[in-house]
Write a structure and sequence with these properties.
337 residues, Rossmann fold, 2 domains, 37% helix, 16% strand, disordered N terminus
Length: 337
């Protein structure tokens, strides 16, 4: 898995693990955290930036939050100090500022992405509800400890990029930590307050989000045409959950679909914003105004009472799912193709 690292492994260790794989195909590969502690590692940094070594591009914000939960769980369990770093323009909209990154540019430019995302299989029920996928529990910890044993150590710090699924339910401690990292700046708080109170006349936690993930092709301006069958399915699913007595906010990755929903449900109190957003990752050049609009969507999700998400992807939407996890919001996601 680490062909790019060009680092020799202990032959005896490899032989032992080879025998375990052959003789015990369902066993968990052994790992030794003491190996990395002996390297002097005390702080594990998960860094979110546009590119990593060998030109590897970052993926979405939801993926990064997911991987950060994996890091937090590992650090809390094995007594390392975790740090979550935003080395991109998202940091402009966060309360916590990371200073002095320019001093370690040579390290950040050499970050190796951890290659094991520990995803195994999508799980979708008969009615289209997307569940958490099955995960690799066999070799993920072995691979991660091996990864930490290979990457450079700087003043007891290692810098990496991980988007692996956490192996245990996310703890309240990890959620509180992540909420502190993601806390919006005072300027963003004022913007969100004005949108909710003055524009929408909504109260905090008094609205439900309808979140529609129609796909990166539209978001990247490669396509803007939707099949009638897809729109019909989408509106039917939304119709099954909306309540005329409640408030709704539409959050979507395109404005055309927002119009379809607004035109269909004229007798329900539904609000939305018509602003350009972006996808954080996959080589997309981040434009500050679009990033700001996307973070506004994230914070509006975080202040809702419930989220109904509809995705054209079998993996659902990490953006809304991990927001819901972080802020303890009831969440359902349906796969609609």
């Amino acid at each position: 898995m680490f062909s790019n690292f060009n680092v020799g492994h202990n032959k005896l260790k490899m032989q032992i693990n080879k025998e375990i794989i052959v003789n015990n195909p369902n066993s968990i590969l052994p790992y030794n955290v003491a190996d990395i502690k002996r390297r002097g590692i005390r702080v594990i940094n998960n860094v979110y930036q546009p590119k990593y070594k060998f030109g590897i591009a970052s993926t979405g914000l939801g993926d990064f939050i997911r991987g950060s939960y994996f890091i937090l769980d590992f650090c809390f369990k094995y007594k390392f100090k975790p740090k979550i770093i935003f080395n991109n323009c998202i940091s402009k909209f966060l309360k916590i500022k990371t200073n002095g990154l320019n001093k370690i540019n040579y390290l950040l430019n050499q970050i190796l992405s951890f290659p094991n995302g520990n995803f195994m299989e999508f799980l979708i029920t008969n009615d289209g509800t997307i569940l958490e996928p099955t995960k690799d529990i066999r070799r993920i910890m072995y691979d991660y400890v091996d990864y930490l044993s290979l990457i450079p150590v700087h003043n007891h710090n290692v810098f990496g990029y991980c988007i692996s699924y956490p192996m245990r339910p996310v703890s309240d401690l990890a959620k509180r930590y992540m909420r502190s990292i993601l806390e919006p700046s005072n300027e963003m708080k004022l913007i969100i307050h004005n949108i909710l109170i003055n524009n929408f006349q909504f109260k905090y936690r008094d609205y439900t989000v309808i979140h529609i993930r129609s796909g990166d092709a539209y978001l990247n301006k490669n396509s803007s045409v939707f099949k009638k069958e897809y729109i019909s399915k989408l509106l039917s699913h939304i119709d099954a959950v909306v309540d005329r007595e409640k408030n709704y906010l539409i959050i979507s990755d395109n404005n055309e679909i927002k119009n379809f929903v607004l035109e269909k449900f004229t007798n329900i109190n539904i609000k939305t914003l018509f602003k350009e957003i972006t996808h954080f990752g996959e080589g997309v050049v981040l434009e500050e105004e679009k990033v700001k609009n996307t973070m506004i969507d994230f914070y509006l999700l975080s202040l809702s009472s419930a989220i109904f998400s509809y995705s054209c992807y079998k993996h659902g939407s990490g953006f809304s799912y991990w927001c819901a996890q972080t802020y303890n919001i009831p969440y359902v996601c349906k796969y609609i193709n």
